[in-house]
Amino acid sequence: SQQGEEDPQALSIQEGENATMNCSYKTSINNLQWYRQNSGRGLVHLILIRSNEREKHSGRLRVTLDTSKKSSSLLITASRAADTASYFCATSNQGGKLIFGQGTELSVKP
Amino acid sequence: NAGVTQTPKFQVLKTGQSMTLQCAQDMNHNSMYWYRQDPGMGLRLIYYSASEGTTDKGEVPNGYNVSRLNKREFSLRLESAAPSQTSVYFCASSGLAGPLGETQYFGPGTRLLVL
After folding, report:
1. pLDDT tens string B29-67
2. CA angle A101–A45–A29, rounded 5-degree value
3. pLDDT band at B97 (very low <50, low <70, confident <90, very high)
4. Are the C-beta atoms of residues A42 and B111 closer than 8 Å to each other?
5. Rounded to 5 degrees, what angle do the CA atoms B15, B16, B18 make?
6. Is residue B52 packed enough to be buried (19+ CB in 10 Å), middle (13-18) or exposed (0-12)?
7. B103 to chain A: which residues are within 8 Å by CB?
8. Closest residue to A96, CB basis, from B44, B94, B107
9. Which is nearest to B102 in space by CA: B114, B94, B92, B113?
10. How many CB atoms neighbour CB B91 within 10 A?
């Protein structure tokens, strides 16, 4: 069964707007990761946040983690058409195994 | 470095046929993984190998077998393909030292259609 549930399932925005995606999970974690998947491609790692961290930045990406609510959010600022992709959260509790959510499909219109 | 490579890219099988999906990584990673991805769903773990010489079942192992041939290569075998195994299969590896040790690196995928 899936650990993470993502919201929304699909998101359509205009270039330059911000995109926010949310992920909820069920059990305790060591870390939470976000991956991007372009159509027809493999997944690419974006950012990792550990359970003792609350916020992390990488370029235009901002990730927050609330372990009390078992939730995380990914914010992409000043979106570009090239950001169009599916975004997945994945949780890790031990041994390096990841459990993926169902993903958010982001469409950024030029 | 090629990263994670998978062969073949596409395959069509008839029900009952067998095939082996190949995966290789050149990053000297210890751990390797096989996932399947079905439309509108995330990735589900089929089997994984935490280190050379070990393999373990993931969430959906039924109908599959794996072999960790050496540190570089991890193959997935379908002994008797079924239409329910129509999917996109991804191989991944991990094992960097340091804080990103659990980051996984994915291959481009194999698209399998079972008729």
Report:
1. 989 999 999 987 789 999 999 888 899 999 999 999 999
2. 50
3. low
4. no
5. 110
6. middle
7. 33, 45, 48
8. B94
9. B94
10. 28
